[in-house]
Structure formats: structure tokens, C-alpha cells
Amino acid sequence: MTRLFILIYSTALAIFFIAVIAMDQFELFSTDSLDATSLANEITATRKLVDKIGETQGAQAAEQALQGFTKDIHLALTRYEVADDTLSEAIKQGVKDYGLYIEDVDENQAYFSLASDPEVVYGIINDPDSPFINTINRKEWFVFVELCAALALISIMVLFVISRRLARLEKTCIAFAYGDFSARASTSSLHSVGQLNLSFNIMADRISQLIQSHKNLTNAIAHESRTPIFRIQCNLDMLDDSGVRPEQMQYLEGIQEDLNELGGMIEELLQFAKLERPDAHLSLTPTNLYPLLASQLEHLQFETQKRLQLEGDDSLMAPIANHLLLRATSNIIRNGYKYAQSCVIVTLCSDETSVLIEIANDGPPIPQDYWQSIFEPFVRLDKARDRQSGGHGLGLAIAKQIVRQHQGELTLGDSELGGPCFTLRLPKAE
Q1: Where is the Histidine kinase domain (predicted)?
Q2: CA 339 to CA 333: how far, in whole Å?
């Protein structure tokens, strides 16, 4: 907001000064010509009066009267000889031709001579030692400061209004980004930022429609696929019961494995769609994570020859839905021992606000370019989808959704073991 204030304030100042300069150039603001005429008339009248005094009382009395008069009107009077080198040729020529020469209207600076003594030139200018002149100068600066302060106040008021409206819009954007696809910005004139709110709502509507269409399609495919799969399974069982030649058994076993893989993928699709629902709310219970993960690793150890090890703080508590969090960790651990050389290590630690579950393995590292996209559905680094590699590219996507529903975050980095390290960051139990 500081940058926005500086931008608004500097723009207002620039517009103000440009307007003043433009008005001055077109003589809408400046009155220099009128001031010069007025000053010339005043000097001419003063000369005539002083000349009258000189005629009746003498040149000395005339000069004394001139000194007293200029002092009373806060002007400094300087006496020059007409041949004085400090006087420019323009001044000398002006005084010779017209009896006076105006140098600077704003400072009331002028030169003139008296008829009683044409060999003397008098110069006048605002007296810098005069309290009156100093007061006027201070007031001019005070007016300038007041204008700048007024512009600053106006800028702050404008910024305050804009910032409040932007804060409302930002709150709506954050809600939409975190899965509340019903979030919309207010289009009231009290809350709108130009057409930005309306444009956001149009964009949000289109995105929501696309996402809903995608979810509906996914659910429909998953549900409708169950029936033909069930029929194939029934036919396969009937074929098996009817008697099959030994050389045909390998084909039946292959079909059965394909059906199992397809059924597993459909179950994961339905689970992922369920977790994506914005109205899905979890019942969270403060739980000690160490014994929960220790029990899980004990069961998973039967599935692999790789070493599964739990380390770290055995007293950390976090509000979780046990079955869902175990689903997330099992997806990551299974993915880990599939590619690990010898071990998968799960570490429990914490910082000031969060509990961290770090799951690392000593397999090949994952390139940093994939650290974000690997959590997307159906993304696999090896691009291979077969029974030997296993999986459907949904395990990490499901894990990320589960952690997100726990108000946490799932990230990927490098581990000290040489392979990847998945970090589940969960809020601490209060």
C-alpha cells in the first residue's frame, strides 16, 4: 500500500504543478503584465511627488522623502551614479529613455531617476530585512506546505477507500483459490473497484462451471464404469468355474489383474472427487502422531523388503482425522519404498506453529521442475502405467487434498538420503 500511496500522491502533485505551469503559460494564472504596469504607475507617481518636493524644498529634502517613503513600504533603496559600472546597459538605457526600468516584478525590483537630479539612479527592491516581507515569504511557503498536505490527505483518503475495496476483493480471491468456488465479489458501488469485481465474478463463474463439469464427468465415468467391470468379473468367474485349459490360465490371470487395476483406479477416482468437494468437512481429533505412524509402518513393513524407520519427537500432537491422514502417509510411503534403494525414513519434528512429518527415501531424486506438478492427478515422472510399476498417478494428488483439508500443506524437496523428501505440515494441537 505504501507504493500505491506514493504513486497516487506523486501523480496528484505532478498534475497540480503541470496545471499551474500551463495556466501560467496561457496567462490564466499569471498577472505579470498587470503587475508591471501597476508598479510602473506607482513609481511614476512617486517620482512626480518627489520632484515636487525637490522643486520646493531642494534635492536633499527630496531624497530624504524618497528614503522615508520606500522604508515605509518595505523597500530597500540604493543610490547609484548614472555611470556606475554595476548597472547594466539595459538599465542605463531604460532610465535614460523612460525615466525608469523594471527588472523583476515579483521582487518589486526597479530603477529610476528624478528630474531634479538626472545623474543619479535609484534602485528599489523588497527589503530582505523587513519583518513584513519575511512574514509574507513565510506565508507563501506555508500555503505551499498546506497545498502539499491537502494533496497528501486527499491521497490518503483515496488510498483508504481503494485499499478497503481491494482488501474485500483479495479476501474473495483467497477464498476462491482455496476451493470455495461459490465465493464472489460484491458488485455494490460501495465495494467495487471499477469493473474489476464484475470481471472477477465472470471469470469465477466460468472457472466454477469448468471445474463442476470436470467433476461431474469424473464421477459419471467412475460410477458408470463399475457396472461393466462387475459384469466382466462375473463372466470371468463363470469362465473359471466352467473349466479352463492350463495354457489359458495365464490369460485369465492377466484379465483378472487388469480388472483389479481398473477397479483400484476407479476407487481412487471416487476418493479424489470426494476430497475435492468444497462442502467436505473433517472431524478432527487431537492425536499423538508417533504411535499412529509407528503402527502404520509396522503393517507396511510386511509389504516390502526395504527398511521403514520412524524417528523424531514422540510427543507431538495434531488435530487430524486418523483414517484420512494415514491414507495420505501410506500413499507417500508406498510411493517411497517403490523407488527407494534400501530405506524410507519418517521423521517427526515441529516449529512454533506446525507439526512436520518428513518422509524421505534414498531413491533417485525428483527434478525440481516437477516439485509442483507431481501433485496433480495422473502425473507420473516415468510416464509408464503398468502392473510392474503400479499406481495410477492419483496417490500424491489424494495425499495433497487430505493434507489441505487438515489446513496443512504438502511440499516436496531433496533429502539428505539423496532422494526426495515429502513434508506434511500440519497445525499444532492447541
Answers
A1: 220-430
A2: 10
Over residues 380-397, the pLDDT tens digits come to: 666 544 444 555 677 888
Tell me which H or E stretch contains 33.
helix 32-57
The β-bridge partners of 125 are 76
Do 196-276 and 285-427 fold alike per CATH?
no
Please list, in sequence order, all residues whose beta carbon lies within 8 angstroms of the beta carbon of residue 419, skipping any fewer than 6 positions away: 336, 339, 340, 341, 360, 361, 362, 363, 364, 365, 366
Q: Which residue has the cell 467412475?
A: 222
* Amino acid at residue number 190: L
DSSP 301: G
Distance CA 193, CA 311 (A): 52
Instruction: State the pLDDT confidence band at 61, using cuts at 50, 70 and 90.
Output: confident
pLDDT at residue 92 is higher than 80: yes
- Does residue 165 carry a pLDDT above 90? no
Question: What are the sequence ranges of the domains in the chain?
Answer: 31-129, 196-276, 285-427
Question: In 3-state terms, what secondary structure has residue 320?
Answer: strand
- Is the domain covering 285-427 a CATH 3.30.565.10 domain? yes
C-alpha cell at 280: 467436505
Q: CA 330 to CA 319: how far, in whole Å?
A: 18
Separation between Cα atoms, residue 425 and residue 407, nearest integer Å: 9
SS3 of residue 408 by DSSP: coil
CATH number of 196-276: 1.10.287.130
